Amino acid sequence: MRQLEWTKAAVLLGLAGYFVFNIATGDLNNYINTRFAWLSYVAVGLFGLLGIMTIYALLRHHESDMGMLYQDDMTHTRIGLGVVMIVAIPLVIGTLIPSRPLGAEAVNGNISLTASTYAGVTVTKDPLERNVLDWLRVFAQEPAPAVFNGERADVIGFIYREPDFPPDHFMVARFTVSCCVADAGAIGLPVYAPSGADLADGEWVRVTGVFEAGTFRNTKMPILHADTLEVVPEPDHPYLYP
Questions:
Q1: What pLDDT, in 10s, does the model give residues 40-50?
Q2: Is 229 within 8 Å of 195 (Cβ atoms)?
Q3: CA proximity to 176, closest of 136, 229, 232
Q4: What are the C-alpha distances in Å from 36 to residues 29, 39, 167, 242?
Q5: Among residues of the chain, what percentage have pLDDT more than 70?
Q6: pTM over 0.70
Q7: Dihedral angle at the C-alpha atoms of 215, 217, 220, 224, nearest 10 degrees?
Q8: Which helix (H) or strand (E) holds 175?
Q9: Domains of the chain: which residue ranges?
Q10: Can you tell me the mean pLDDT for 81-100?
């Protein structure tokens, strides 16, 4: 049983260290909405404290005391081992799988051209400061796409295409995250850009241009006609937060 307690301590301190690493490197942004980042700091404190307390209890007891302490029934033993294994799973997965944000390969056809869920949100930003989500919110409040003819936009996102897209069209896309990546959803704006045909799916680009009403995937909507198309680095915060 003493070995099990040392294992518990190692797992708890390992989880605390894993959270510290993700906070320090910025990888935490790949998993959760920044509004909830404070929970990770709480987790560091809790896991670290529990790990230290476990080690402290082990060091305080002699072998004879520990033998008496752990002469428990088999049910308690199984529960203790089970808890350790469950808690260790995210640590093992997080260590073995490199951290990276969701991108074009994660869309898999599930991308929205509307933001009807957030249509009630009033967007007060200047048009050139709006992101993909802001524009979809604005579009959701105005059923006539021609209203936006001539509106200028400057947005950043990754390139997303499907086989039925015209060769001179793509979507500039982003993932929205309300809480964590488990609830992530892809959204995008259709872009007309003949010069972008050679750009690969998943590349991050900055698109500036004007909207013109058109038909995309059999639906009338504003289409962003690109004036400039620039490949850019992936943002530090790749997700948009509703």
A1: 899 899 888 98
A2: yes
A3: 136
A4: 10, 6, 40, 13
A5: 89
A6: yes
A7: -60
A8: strand 169-176
A9: 2-96, 104-240
A10: 78
By DSSP bridging, strand 204-216 and strand 219-231 are antiparallel
Query: Which token pair is 212?
Result: 């013109």
Domain 104-240 has CATH 2.40.50.140: yes
Stated as kind and residue range, the H or E segment containing 204 is: strand 204-216
| Stretch among 6-20, 82-96, 183-197 having the lowest mean pLDDT | 82-96
C-alpha to C-alpha distance for 176 and 117, rounded to whole angstroms: 12
Go through the chain and tell me how many residues it has. 242
Residue 196 CB coordination number (10 Å): 21
Using alpha carbons, list the distances in angstroms from residue 27 to 46, 59, 102.
Answer: 20, 35, 12
Instruction: Find residue 227's DSSP bridge partners.
Output: none
Q: Lowest-confidence range among 60-74, 124-138, 163-177? A: 60-74
pLDDT at residue number 173: 96
| CA gap 185, 177 in Å, rounded | 7
Q: What are 107's two structure tokens?
A: 């869309």
Cα–Cα dist 122/229, whole Å: 28
Which residue has tokens 């038909």? Answer: 215
